[in-house]
Design brief:
Four copies of one chain form a homotetramer.
Chain A: E1 2-5, H1 11-23, E2 27-32, E3 37-42, H2 50-55, E4 59-63, E5 83-85, E6 88-90, E7 96-100, H3 107-119, E8 124-126, H4 144-157, E9 161-165, E10 179-182, H5 190-197, E11 203-206, H6 213-225, E12 231-235, H7 252-260, E13 265-267, H8 269-273, H9 279-288, E14 293-297, H10 315-332
Parallel strand pairs in A: 7-8, 7-14, 8-9, 9-10, 10-11, 11-12, 12-13
Antiparallel strand pairs in A: 1-3, 1-4, 2-3, 5-6
Helix pairs in contact in A: 3-4, 5-6, 9-10
């Protein structure tokens, strides 16, 4: 870590600061220029509060020269992590094709969709049981019952399942869930991350709506630091000024995360765009960008003419998309 | 709520949609134009999933004509809510001057700061016991012990106290805390909001880093919908592309929230700017904008030359600021 | 266009507004609900100032039901526009592979790069002569001389050329330039757009750093409204809070623009990411997303070890990328 | 300027880079740590292309330790610049109260408003003659004639006038205009800035919708570098995800700009918020934040009931606001 001191900082102030840093077990290397003084901090700087340091009057700016994350860092773990979830593997060349409905609605629905997406090439079944909703008056999911229905679909098809947790008090319900999802709104619910770090369950961690890639990796670090290395990162769109799409899918995140970390990186184009029309092109783009998997909403509800065109694909559209995804994987691998 | 249908929507599709809406207990008023068909939805539209409706292929766009929040809505509750917390009142002309250190560090520290800020005009003491930190390796606060020390400071000075909760499992520790703070990262931790709604405690709800004002009000609605009307809204800066300041303080939020809701609105300039130098001008600006209170970091640590200039003010700076704040209140009230 | 009036609007106020709208040659269709009054405005609403209407006290909100752009609108022009520039065609299935250096530096440099990228599959040569720079002290390009050198490279290789204009007073210099680029910072330099609309030259219009897709289309409309239909739209990254990449490339823009407009849409991954390492994955992603072309920085400067790794690719890297791009085009077409 | 090299950079690569930097007339100070090598660049780094340097493969990151702007920098010019425009002074304790209509519409209108705002305390008259509009079909202003009418209003009231230039070819029309405004969309129209730098006219430079404060100062530097020191900076809101207000007014910009530069800083709350209701609280907030002036839309059109409530204030509302502004100036000065 480098701290640049402001012009006009006195000798006494500089010495105070150096002593304070040494008290935190850091070696300090001083580079006195004509105009500025630069302090190089050597040691375990991951414990130094960069915001506090930056906010000091005598400090012009602070810059990390090593990333603040350790266990998720590719530098110290060059090989790709491969996460195993039931019959599925993710990362290190293994591609996850996760598909299923936004919400679990009934036994018939989830088993039909599960069979359909399995036939169309899905390797993992998704479905929401606990639903985070902006409004307290909106449908909050089938909850416990939804998880039981997902387990029935898993039994019927053999597909491993992924579903979202919102509250650590419900962890017992997830005993037979293969991958536990942490949603965008809980990406910095640090107490939840720590508890999930104590399990060995694969965790699918979604990027928050306004979180940087470094913050996403620091949240993953919370999980790994408690002993759980089975983390899958998921880009799902960030909030910008653009209003034609629900969010702006940041596909450069795929390469950046793969450079910085050994963890697998998947992309969710359904939530990012909010329109079925945009899901196939963005799914193909994510694959071409090198993603380790996709998470796609698929429904199967022929009686509901309404649903055609929502952010979900039909199983037929999904099957067609999957074929192209596999062809693009051939090109970019 | 108004739904505009796309050109080319067939009669059958329109009828399907209308039936689907009627099944949700809505009356539908149809306005057939030459180019577009507009559906006016009448009834309790707060339960209609606007995102789902928007994502339908035949729907051009959806627009609410009434806000989706009810209990926080000023339309149905014209008078200002006044929140009472110990000796302090907030809202309806009562101004909250909340001050104290970022973190509770020791008994001496918190009692000294509490006395100092009380003398300087503070009406409520703040101090962090549970600290949400981006890094798992950073200091996470004194936790339980920090709350005990805050209670000692309360006993010593008579000031009501406010401190942050991160996990509903720790609620018992907050029995004698006067105001429970929900931090920006937990603004959409809906399970936490619901549980706090079941208490009668005043809740200080901070706006998330990338949340709209409507989302902030919907999160407040979660608390009120469970029976707790004692909610204080807090603007603390949003995330933008600007990097000179830690966040961008959105002061127009004060008037907009006061127009839309009866709840009191306070401003935290310390976290928003991250620099002590910017706290006084932004505190004065927030007061001039009509805020119902301020939340300001103050420390009292003469032995630590370092701390001068961080985002905290000294008690002397805070006293001087408080005088100007009171003068501006006279001008704008 | 729909205007929703606020509750409490009086009969007189409503009548005033309706008269004002009728004075602007609009028919007004009134839909009086129990809670709100909705006005449907029929006629040429592209001339109505939506911001003014929205800002009226009695107006709750205003919503367009038809896009404000006409000539760029696919609704009235269903077939893809194909722009022709020398030997190259763009749009309607024709893919543009634009490559070349950031700046023209010397005759040798530009002719060498031009030959190299031609051999590697480029169909158009790019190179900056007039360079918009944040700092007045930075290199501002070779200007007139740079354009002359580009023309020599065109003569030597037969590749059509594209280069940026910053000031309409220099238009004469562009007489033999095949495509005139309008940079992101000039996307809303309306006087420049109007003048370019009076030429028949192909115009490559880059999206501004913080402009919406609708604003990009409105700027294209400025050019078409003066009679020039030869416009190519270019996504080149938008400004967000993320700092790992220079900008955030918004690839969903490709499909959205192609849905809304008949104009070809290309992507510039070099400027968006600012790192050579990220150019190939994002170029492939853009192709998979359905872009009508790419614009990629390539240099050829073996004496400058430094340049390896900047945002430019070497001709060899570009040749390899081009092969994969063509393979992905086969998959997605 | 500091460049941090990546781990694994070879000796040869480092030497190449150092030679390249020395060729640019910089001294290089090398600090070789165990993990990283840091280069301190000494000399005129304002000419170094920071983006190019950052994009090199061997460079981890680059950081300026001195600002890239010189003539606008307070470090080298500690005293406040006072801009004089006719009878008005701005900066150094002189407060500018700029008021007038959005657009000049007729001689009667502009003379009436000018008289009304003068009586209410305005020191400068604003009014748009050339109007930048998103749509080519929207009213583009009265142009030349608008400027003539402004000059009549100036003659009638003695108020100095400010109006926007969009195109350097119209400069002659501004001979008797006291302050030339550069709008947000032209903040980085560098050719326009250079030409205005060759005049001695006061220039009111508005911050672009998505520009950083450093970019605003660099644009001002373009004007000063050509010899014109009469620049007034104007904060007018930035683009964020929030939709209740047209833009998000960034009031911390006032203090930051005043710290970094000697130029006066004013605030335009009318365009930022887009609602008359929000103009007074934000005008008061800007004053409390220490702004050197305000720019406020005022109209005077009793026959047009419509206009009440738009983003313009009436002269009466403006007079009342002005009184409070002056009271707040007393508190904060």
């Amino acid at each position: 870590m480098i701290a640049v001191l402001k012009q006009g900082t006195t000798q006494t102030q500089t010495e105070h600061l150096i002593q304070w840093l040494k008290d935190r077990n850091l070696d300090v290397h001083i580079s006195q220029g004509k105009e500025v003084t630069i302090l190089g901090l050597i040691g375990d700087t991951s414990r130094v509060d960069m915001e506090l340091l930056s906010s000091l009057d005598i400090v012009e700016s602070v810059k990390r020269v090593s990333e603040p994350f350790k266990q998720v860092n590719r530098t110290f773990h060059p090989l790709d992590t491969v996460v195993e979830a039931g019959s599925a593997k993710i990362g290190g060349g293994h591609f996850a094709m996760i598909a299923g409905p936004c919400s679990v609605e009934s036994e018939d629905q989830i088993i039909q969709v599960a069979s359909a997406v399995k036939d169309a090439g899905a390797t993992i079944l998704r479905g929401g049981a606990f639903k985070p909703r902006t409004s307290p008056y909106a449908f909050q999911g089938m909850k416990d019952e939804g998880i039981l229905l997902l387990l029935k679909a898993k039994a019927a098809t053999g597909l491993p399942i992924v579903t979202e947790i919102m509250n650590i008090s419900t962890l017992d319900l997830f005993a037979d869930v293969d991958i536990i999802q942490v949603g965008a709104r809980n990406m910095q619910n640090f107490d939840l991350l720590k508890e999930l770090g104590k399990t060995k369950k694969p965790i699918l961690l979604k990027r928050g709506l306004a979180n940087t890639l470094q913050e996403l990796l620091m949240s993953a670090e919370y999980i790994l630091s408690e002993g759980n290395e089975n983390v899958i990162l998921c880009e799902r769109g960030i909030r910008t000024f653009e209003t034609y799409t629900r969010n702006t899918l940041d596909l450069s995140a795929v390469s950046v995360l793969q450079d910085l970390s050994h963890l697998p990186v998947i992309v969710d184009p359904s939530h990012a765009t909010g329109k079925a029309r945009l899901v196939p092109p963005m799914a193909l783009a994510a694959t071409a960008a090198g993603a380790d998997g996709l998470m796609i909403e698929v429904h199967n509800n022929p009686s509901c003419a309404l649903c055609d065109g929502a952010q979900s694909l039909t199983p037929e559209q999904f099957a067609e998309l999957n074929q192209k995804v596999q062809q693009i994987r051939e090109v970019v691998k």
